[in-house]
Description:
The protein starts with a strand and ends in a 5-residue tail after the last helix. The strands form 4 sheets. Strands 7-6-15-16-17-14-18-21 form an 8-stranded mixed β-sheet. A 6-stranded mixed β-sheet has the order 9-3-2-13-20-19, covered by helices on one side. Helix 1 packs parallel to helix 6 (104-117) and helix 1 (14-25) runs parallel beside helix 8. By secondary structure, it is an alpha/beta fold. The longest helix is centred in the C-terminal third of the chain and has 28 residues, at 325-352. It has helices spanning 14-25, 38-43, 52-60, 65-70, 90-93, 104-117, 238-249, 300-321, 325-352, 361-375, 377-388; strands spanning 2-4, 7-10, 30-33, 49-51, 72-74, 77-81, 84-88, 99-101, 121-123, 127-132, 140-145, 148-153, 156-159, 177-192, 202-204, 211-215, 221-227, 262-276, 279-280, 283-285, 291-292. Helix content is 36%, strand content 27%. The protein has 11 helices and 21 strands. It binds adenosine-5-diphosphoribose and P-hydroxybenzoic acid. Residues 47-49, 201, 212, 214, 222, 295-296, 298 line the site of P-hydroxybenzoic acid.
Amino acid sequence: MNKKTQVGIVGAGPSGLLLSHLLHLEGIDSVVLEARSRKYVEERVRAGVLEQGTVDLLCETGLGDRLQREGLVHHGIELRFDGRGHRIALSDLTSGRSIWIYGQREVVKDLIDTRLAANGTIHFEVDDVSLTGIDSSSPVLSYHRGSQDHNLDCDFIAGCDGFHGVSRDSIPAGVLRAYHHIYPFGWLGILASVAPSTEELIYAYHDRGFALHSLRSPEISRLYIQVEPDEDINNWPDDRIWEELSVRMATDDGWTLKIGPILEKGITPMRSFVVEPMQSGRLFLAGDAAHIVPATGAKGLNLAVHDVHNLANALIAWYRKGSDELLKQYSTNCLDRVWRVQDFSSFMSLMLHRYSDDDGFKGRLQRAQLGYVCSSEAASRSLAENYVGLPYA
Ligand code: APR
Ligand code: PHB
């Protein structure tokens, strides 16, 4: 079957769904193709920290109702080391900017509901998506749905299919340069049915490794511990996870970690990845398809939103004014922020994780850096302005 749309979007993660929504607000038609089921996409557990700029964009474009009801505004984070907590007063240091705790899966649910309520087209559970003609003015997305073959003629294709998607690999050899860094640690993350033991996020540095206390709601906590990148989850029964978290987060003043039933657990490797440029012909990459940041800065979703905001504006300028200026600048406009955020995420990661090959030197540098970040207003402010998100250019 042959069909036509203006913008063909591969992937119904936050990038693809938000792009489809922003285009729809300007009367531009799109079709989203997703390999997984709606249930899978809505239930996937991911990070949960939204920058001020992300929240502003979601609210300005009609996606703020539940976010404003259920999201939790935070004005600070804690860095904990040597048995003591040190608060970084995010809002005081950034003229009132803050972060919001609202799970990525809630953002995805809101986006799917909003697109479907507006009669938007999202095809879930499609197979064998392939891209052809990206160097022509009419690229095509081919795919299988049920037992049928489909071709979708597009003006443009947006590759929003994450790190393991097909879009990036459809770009001819020699066009892209990839930058890749693998960190020598991973995160074991849990979602637990227990009230958070803290009001603000705690990033803990400890001789046994990094630990993070985050949350999702007044009843649900999200916590992480540093593990080896190839660690087997079967080595971590629930009791061991809680014990390790308690040790790494312990303070001298007797703070205690509340424990409860673990609802989900999994291990994620830590990597940095960027491709340049983020476009080729009529194919534009956005979000995890173009870049991955280590989770320590909580930036993956926020960076994806910035890409999509740029891409939507560029496509709107093309359809409204016939101008390809912003489309040509898309990659450059995104990559400036991508590298700033890579640097920040790398800074947070290198400061907070223990290295198994450390002979003591790295640890001393980390303590010096933590001490500086917590005692110098200039250093705290630098961390804070990156953490809440620098203003969009
Ligand atoms: N065909 C169709 N869909 C695909 C294909 C394919 N060949 N390959 C992957 N997908 C889908 C995935 O199933 C997923 O739903 O593309 C979607 C990509 O979504 P994400 O991985 O969430 O990426 P993105 O939307 O860019 O979001 C970036 O979300 O993944 C986190 O850490 C990431 O927080 C960051 C943000
Ligand atoms: C999360 O809540 O999942 C989270 C919070 C902060 C991070 C990473 C993940 O740095």
